[in-house]
Sequence to fold (96 residues):
Amino acid sequence: MIDKIALINGIAEKAGQILGGEKSQTREDIERNIKALVSSALSRLDLVSRDEFDAKAAVLEQTRMKLEALEKHVAQLQYNHAEQVVKDAPDTIERS
Fold:
């Protein structure tokens, strides 16, 4: 999982390096503002960890496999029912 704090600090640090020079009040203010901005942006995103994503993908794959098996089973039942109706049809006509 991504360490959000480390990511935010890394981005702020890089921005501070771009500004160059020694630590100054302005540079610290900019870093603090960047940290707040990035933190706010990340909190609005609906992010999940790779592990959680992989777990959900595995559940989805299992569900798809079950659905396909059920669809095949229903198709076979429909075929069998239609076949039985066709077999019973002549008996129904003769009895009338």
Remarks:
- The CA atoms of residues 80 and 94 lie 23 Å apart.
- The radius of gyration is 32 Å.
